Amino acid sequence: MSDKLPSKKNRGGYRDSLKSMDTEETFDLLFYRPIGYLQAIGAHKLGITPNAITIFSIFLGIGSGVCFYFKDLWINLAGVFLLVWADSLDSADGQLARITGQYSRLGRILDGISSETWFISIYFFICLRETLTPGFFHTYWWSIWVFAAITGFFHAWQASMADYYRQFHLFMLKGKDGSELEDSAKPLWEKFHALSWRKNFFQKGMLMFYADYTETQQKRTPWMQKLRRALREKYGNDIPRSFREAFRKKSLPLMKYTNILSFNTRSFALFAAILIFQQPWLYFAFECTVLNLVLVYMMLRHERICRYFINQLDKEAGRQD
């Protein structure tokens, strides 16, 4: 893809910056994507790379967490502003990468680290706030940290699986070039072991994180992995369009659940807990209950879909025999 931005006369310029209409969330299309696109255009004109945008968003997200420590409404609103700006940049870095062709594995790793860093900061400062507020968590100060650790574990699981199902949907929709789906974690670990900690400390560290991330996603989706192997054995890299369309039809209804487990729903719940109820710990409760129920339902549904298509492939093989 050319590193030049689409002409102003080219109405497809904005659409080129989107992953796909199948996976885009309504609020993103109305708010974050237009803002992200404008920032992507500005960054490109200034020679700013997608990775630089991602790194800047990390600092904004950390600053947002600091603001949520205070009980002052205006400081909390500043935290909301910083987090919304950080997420608009998270949109902008991906949009810039897509319209300029500046894709990289490092960019995908940084993108995942950025959002996790935002929420680590938010969790940390919410815990500090709760321990200093008279009440249960002030008396039993350790309980909020345990609650945060458990919530953080599920948060990472939810975000990871939502991203994985979206990438598999994009793979079936657009093929390998339209998705960031890794074929296997094994080549990643091979590259990791080939690098030296002394000479390639940063690269090796990033690759370790990403290889473990990918391997964990694959272990949690056994029927999807069976389907991927069956498709490689039967079709190689040329999966028939009819099969892709059939899979898309069944997978598409699940994309709304991947969106629920993404940023917007989390941020709305977070803002409500802090600004309206003024009980930040309620956000932890929301993630551990509502979002976990969505996660379990989504995983069971997706695995059932993959098992269905494996059975279809087996039936076709039986008829051919």
Question: Would you kindly provide a written description of the structure presented here, covering whatever features stand out?
Answer:
- The protein is mainly alpha-helical and 321 residues long.
- The protein has helices spanning 12-16, 26-46, 50-67, 73-100, 105-131, 136-139, 141-174, 186-194, 201-219, 222-235, 241-251, 255-260, 263-276, 281-320.
- Helix 5 runs antiparallel to helix 7 (141-174).
- It is globular.
- The termini are far apart.
- Mean pLDDT is 90; it is low at 1-12.
Short descriptors:
mainly alpha; 321 residues; 78% helix; single chain; disordered N terminus
**Assembly annotation:** single chain
- Report the strand count: 0
Global morphology: globular
SSE series: HHHHHHHHHHHHHH
- State the secondary-structure class: mainly alpha
Nearest-integer average pLDDT: 90
| Biggest beta sheet summary | none
Summarize the structure.
With 321 residues, the chain is mainly alpha-helical.
Task: Produce the secondary structure layout.
Layout: H1 12-16, H2 26-46, H3 50-67, H4 73-100, H5 105-131, H6 136-139, H7 141-174, H8 186-194, H9 201-219, H10 222-235, H11 241-251, H12 255-260, H13 263-276, H14 281-320
